Amino acid sequence: MTTMTDEPAAAAASRGRHWIDHWEPDDEQFWAKTGKKVAAKNLVFSILTEHLGFSVWLLWSIAVLNLPTVGIKLSVSEALWLTTTPNLVGAAMRIPYTFAPALFGGRNFTVVSALLLLIPCGLFVYAIENPDVPFWVLLLIAATTGLGGGNFASSMANITHFYPTSKQGLPLGLNAAGGNLGTSVTQLAMPPLIVAFGLVAVGWVWMPFILLAALCAYLFMNNLTKATSAYTVKEMAASTRNPQTIIMSILYIGTFGSFIGYAFSFGVLIKTQFPDIKGADFIWLGAFAGSFARPLGGWLADRFGGARVTMIDFFLMGLGVAGVAWAVEAKSWPLFLTAFLFVFITTGIGNGSTYKMIPAIFKTKSLEGVDATDDKAVATALITARRNAAAAIGIISAVGAAGGVLIQQTFRISIEESGGITPALLTLAAFYGICVALTWACYLRKVKVGQTKMSLAEAGV
User: Cα–Cα distance between 199 and 307 in angstroms, integer?
Assistant: First the structure.
């Protein structure tokens, strides 16, 4: 085993300079001398690729509004399928994408995942230039943008290995925020681009950036030897049955599911509740606010504990949607916009704090019963914790993304059954209340450990 020098990579000679064999981010001396610089470099280029992934993932949510301009006529049901299918595929892709960095190396798969984004962009151009294609072909083309949704899981799973458990909140928040911002960038930049150059430009514009991201990842990122592990189907299935994975999946539906569900629905909600307001001028604000709040959630979790921040945040989310419901009943557009932006901010904070919780939970569970004086046993437990957390992140992120579809369907059913969105908002407020209780019961409630009572939050979650 080689040891790492001050250079970014003292890698295994047989596999090239981009592989790092010795990586101990929880060692304070190693982290200060070498680890921090290398981790930051990998984070920057991870953010770039993930940002493009989200931008491509949301491509059809904007394009579908402009398809009639190129001669593609769709029913309302067909248009909804073109926006729902990418969300479903993106959620499903997060599971295999989680394990790809462990199988191929984080740097290697970042290159591949970036280049794969050329597929939905190229097919989009084909669809716009051939408006007579059958709807099922159009649906398959839209489905390929789900590759962009998968990028989140591989990026987050990879970056988890680079940072100390105690300092993961902020970098994971920044990494996710960079991706989430792709949502608002697409919603903000595409309408004027379409006006200036036509709908086909939506496909072409991302291609040079994708190639640049792949080149930067190839040249500057690293693979970590300790992060590589060939997960079997059995091990993947075991992770889905882990109680902590199940609990955090529910909580992540509440945070990220809400974020992406509201991001997809915001424009429609503005149009249905305030038809005199030009939604295109405001639709991007929600995702923008939520994205920028995500690092704040990670920072707060690093400072005060992920479980504490998450529980308080769910309470605030409940108040926020109640405020939106009040604004709808009062027919107040300023109050509606203010309350909804507050909700978006709380989803971002919750996204950051829940992701801080995941590695901390698995670290705490892995160290239970381990002799703290046995350095080898502790090191083995920490490696196991990181791998288990990386696996759980993919599953949790997939469930959370699928939860966005549930948010959309909640609004659809509410509008169809009652003619308004108030019942949906009250249902969501009740769900956030359940999340408050679940967070407290699982992570903040004190339970007997040996001769003392303590909560997982007190153990660092």
Answer: 44
Q: Which residues of 402-425 are buried (b: 16+ CB within 10 A; e: fewer)?
A: bbbbebbebbbebbeeeebbbbbb
Query: Rounded distance, CA 165 to CA 31, Å?
Result: 12
Strand, helix or coil for residue 294:
helix
Closest CA to 424 of 225, 276, 297, 272: 272
Q: Which has the closest alpha carbon to 456: 372, 365, 376, 395? A: 365
pLDDT tens column, 17-53: 889 988 989 889 999 999 999 999 999 999 999 999 9
Give the other-Cβ count within 10 Å of 98's Cβ.
28
Fill in the DSSP letter of residue 19: E
- Structure tokens given for 153: 């899981």
Buried b (16+ CB within 10 A) or exposed e, 326-341: ebbeeeeeeebbebbb
To which H or E segment does residue 133 belong?
Answer: none
Tally Cβ neighbours within 10 Å of residue 44.
15
Query: Is the Cα dihedral 453, 454, 455, 459 positive or negative?
Result: negative
Q: Which domains does the chain have, with CATH numbers?
A: 18-230 (1.20.1250.20), 238-461 (1.20.1250.20)
Residue 447 β-bridge partners: 454
- Model pTM? 0.81
The 3-state DSSP class for residue 452 equals: strand
Q: Provide the 10 A C-beta neighbour count for residue 271.
A: 14
**Dihedral, 415, 421, 422, 424 alpha carbons, nearest 10:** 90
Average pLDDT in the 421-450 region? Answer: 90
> Can you say whether the dihedral through the CA atoms of 314, 319, 322, 328 is positive or negative?
negative
CB burial readout 283-296, b (16+ within 10 A) else e: bbbbbbbbbbbbbb
**Cβ atoms 36, 100 nearer than 8 A:** no
Please name the residues in contact with 250: beta carbons below 8 A apart, sequence gap of 6 or more: 435, 438
Q: Which two tokens stand for residue 85?
A: 């299918």
What is the torsional sign of CA 50, 55, 56, 61?
A: positive
| Matching residue, tokens 């097919």 | 123
H or E element in which residue 460 lies: none
Alpha-carbon gap, residue 443 to 313, rounded angstroms: 15
Structure confidence by residue, pLDDT tens digits, 341-385: 999 999 999 998 998 898 888 888 888 777 777 778 887 887 777
Closest-CA residue to 107 (of 33, 212, 217, 208): 217
Question: Above 50 in pLDDT, residue 212?
Answer: yes
- Residue 101: count of CB within 10 angstroms of its CB: 29
